Each structure stands twice: as C-alpha cells, then as structure tokens.
Amino acid sequence: MRLYAPWEKAFKKVATPFEHFLHAQTTTGMVLMLMTIVALVLANSPLAEAYKHFFHMKIDLNVGSWQLSHTLHHWINDGLMAIFFFIIGLEIKREVVFGELSNLKVAMLPILAAIGGMVVPALIYASINAGTEGAGGWGIPMATDIAFAISALVLLGNRVPRALVAFLVALAIVDDLGAVLVIAIFYTEQIQTLPLMLAGGAFLVMLTFNRFGIHMILPYFIVGLLMWFFMLESGVHATIAGVIAAMAIPSRPKRAPVDFTQEIRKKLDRYDTYPVATDHTLHAKQKGILSNIKDRINAVGTPSARLEHDLHLPVALIVIPLFALANAGISIDFNSIFSTAVTPVSMGIIAGLIFGKVLGVFGVAWLAIKLKIAVLPEGSSMSQIFGVSFLGGIGFTMSIFVAELAFVGNAELIFQAKVGILVASLFAGLFGYFWLRYIAKSISVA
C-alpha cells in the first residue's frame, strides 16, 4: 500500500489550475521547513565554519575580458531568486486577469486586508526602531510567506472553507506585490541610468513579442535573461526583473478553445484506424497525430500557465531550498538568545509580524465588512479571518530577503532580524493553525 503525506492525500485528485497552485505551494512549504531545519543544524554544528565558507565561495563568469564575480550566496539571492520572483509575477498576473483579484467585489477584502497587513507592521517596527541604526528595516515585517501560510491552511483540510483559502492566496499575492514595490523603490541605493534604460528596452521587446502573438518560450527567455543582467548592473535589485518579465508573458491562448474537443476526437479516431503492431510500436502516422495533438493542446493553453506549472517544481525543490539553506542558518547561543530577541530590530519584527499583521489584516477586514465595503468569503467567519491574520504573520522567505537588503554589510543586524523572523513566524504559524483547528468553529468574533 502506498503511503501519502497529509498534503499528498489532500491532492490526489488535483484537477484545476488553482488546486495545482495550492499543491505546489504546500510542497514548497514542506521542503522549506525541512531545509530551514537543516540550515539551523549546520550553523550550530562542528560544520558551521565549512557551511559559512561554502556560501561565501566566489563564482566567476568570464567572457573574454568581461567578468561577473559574486559569492554563491549572492548568486542564489540575486540569480536563482529571480526565478522565484518570476513565479510571483506569473501568480500576480493570473490572479488579476482570471483569479480572485479579477472581480473587484470579491477582491476588495483581500486587497484592503493586505494593505493593512503591510502598513501596520511597518509602522510598529518604525516606532520601535526610530532613531536607531536598524530603522531601515521597516519593510521586513510587511511580508507574508505564501508557501508556509497556505501549507498550514491545506493541512486543516475541510475545517476551513475553500473561499477562505482563496482569500489567503489573494491576500498573500497582494502582499507579494507590495513587497516587490518596496524592494524596487526603497531598497535601491544607487541607480545607473544606462543599464536601467537597457532593461526597459528589453521589457519593451518582450511586450512586442506578446503583441505579435509569439508564444514560443525561447525568445522571452533570451531577452528576459538580458533584462536580468541589465537590472543587476543598474543597481535596482535584479530579482525585480523576474516580476517585470512575467508581465510580458502571454496569458491568452494562441488559438481559441472553440471546437477543441471535436478536433481532438477526430484526430483520435484517425489514430485508432491504424492497426496495432505486434511489438506494440506506433505507426509513423500515429506518431504524427500525437505530435499534432500535443501542438493543439499547447495552442489552446497559454505560455504563462505552462511556465507557472513547469517552474513550480524546480522552484520548490531547488531555488527555495537553496535560499533557505544559504540564509536561514544562524548560530544560536541559547545563553544570549533572549537578549538578542529583545533588541529593537528583533522586537520590531516580532511585534510587526504578530501584532501588526493581526491589527492590520483582521482590523481592516473587520472595518471593511462593518462599513459594507467588502463581504466575508463564502462560508467563513470573522473568527476564521482572525486565525488567517496570524498565518499572515509567517514572514520567512520574503522577510529574510528584505532583511538581507535592508542591512547589507551589517552581519549583527541581519542576525537580529533573522532571530526575530524565525521567532515571529514560528509563533504566528502555530497560533494561527491551532486557532483555526480548535477554536474558530466555536467562537464568532463579530
């Protein structure tokens, strides 16, 4: 008998793109949790120095006299994470064009809640760190880790309505968009005009490809790679290129899906007219028909959906685990962990991700519903929104990413930030999960 992990069992019958998305995010969350534990074990073991030096190893890319030289840590955060941000861009575009954010009435609640969940944590952090060297880290507690948050909801199974899951997805995606804008606008120290203009030119080329109906992936990949390089040289964080590139990927099918089933059925009828060989090999004409069917399926699909589907697995199993392994490993001295957790940076992050997210997400959602600006997700209660607002306090991936940008070159502040992120994310995730599992059904917060 085959054994399934809880998240596998819940998705044995994955059918819709939304369910595929949830499955991918849940897998990402589980792998991310495992690699975080591995990173923490390595950083607090006899291998700690080797672990540290490994990610600070220089990797050079040389073409003639031209050279691009960065540490492995830098290549992961600026290079591989661009693919992660590309996925975020595709998710944002999908939700805006076809998903929860395409219907303004439905989208209003997660949009307002997400804005509250970004603004309030930033204000709390800023008030605690005003006038200190850590003041620039106000963007750290704004973020929500969509993979961890969705994993917690999916593990709850039928205890939460599907509409509540959709609400959290929409909220997290708006949150991701806010984080991307914060990174692009506030965590860019110096801008080089020419490379930035070249990056803009590359984006226009990709939009032209889209406008002329080019659905092949390769041209977008080549120009997108150039845009990433120009963005890297411009001073704007290179991962932003991933989000921008995603906006240019076609999200409409090359051919309308009208009469699709009839066409495929005719081709399959032709396929069946050829005799089955004794060695079960396909007839040459059958191979041609199958190739034609594959092309037709691709034509009725979209490059953006295909890329989102194809990239989720490598991002979940390679990019995000490497990011966690390179960034989550902090040396924990239990004798001084409390003193670190009460530093202004750590306290600002903990207060922002826990209390700020709850005040921002739940408070704004409650106000919007009372004022009839928005409506509750179908089948859910304010008590469940309260639990979800705690899950929004799982910052992890994006929070660590912003911390690396906010305190670049300051190892002590980065360490304090990571301690705050880990403590807050652990508490928010556990509290939100147990609230939704054991309390939300019996308590209604009006």
Describe this structure in words.
With 446 residues, this protein is mostly helical. The chain has two domains: 6-187 and 237-254 and 301-439, Up-down Bundle (Na+/H+ antiporter like fold), CATH 1.20.1530; 260-297. Helices cover 70% and strands 3% of the residues. The protein has 18 helices and two strands. The protein has helices at 6-10, 17-43, 48-55, 72-97, 104-129, 146-155, 162-186, 193-211, 217-234, 240-248, 260-272, 284-300, 303-327, 337-341, 344-370, 382-391, 396-406, 411-439; strands spanning 58-63, 66-71. It has a two-stranded antiparallel ribbon. The longest helix has 29 residues, at 411-439. The protein is globular, with a radius of gyration of 24 Å.
Features:
single chain, 446 residues, mainly alpha, Na+/H+ antiporter like fold, two-stranded antiparallel ribbon, 18 helices, 70% helix, disordered N terminus, disordered C terminus
Number of helices: 18
The main sheet comes to: 2 strands, antiparallel
Structural class: mainly alpha
CATH class of the largest domain: Mainly Alpha
> How would you describe the shape?
globular
Number of strands: 2
Strand content: under 5%
CATH homologous superfamily assignment of the largest domain: Na+/H+ antiporter like domain
Unreliable sequence segments: 1-15, 442-446
What is the arithmetic mean of pLDDT?
A: 83
CATH topology type of the largest domain: Na+/H+ antiporter like fold
Could you tell me the radius of gyration in angstroms?
24 Å
Taking strands numbered 1, 2, ... along the chain, how are they ordered across the largest sheet? 1-2
What's the structural domain tally? 2
Q: What is the N-to-C order of secondary-structure elements (H for helix, E for strand)?
A: HHHEEHHHHHHHHHHHHHHH
The residue fraction in helices comes out at: 55-70%
Straight-line N-to-C gap: 47 Å
CATH architectural category of the largest domain = Up-down Bundle
